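Re: that chain you flagged

S.,

Sorry for the slow reply, it's been a week of failed gels. I finally had a moment to sit down with the sequence you sent. For the record, here it is as I used it:
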Amino acid sequence: MDRFALVLVIIGALNWLLIGLFRFDLVASIFGGQTTAISRIIYSIVGLAGLYSISFLFRERTKTD
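Prediction finished late last night. Pasting the structure tokens below so you have them in one place:
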């Protein structure tokens, strides 16, 4: 679950990078616009992954040798 959430957060970050640099929304471009149902679902899933990823900040790290 952690890796899946991290992948989604990275995808969302790359999409924001494209928006910031080139004014190009990759998700909207692929799925037919920002207001389509599938785009809104993708945005929501990425947002939920971001909220879940907040828990990474508060976890204890274990050392591996």
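What I noticed first: DSSP finds three helices and no strands in the chain.

Talk soon,
D.
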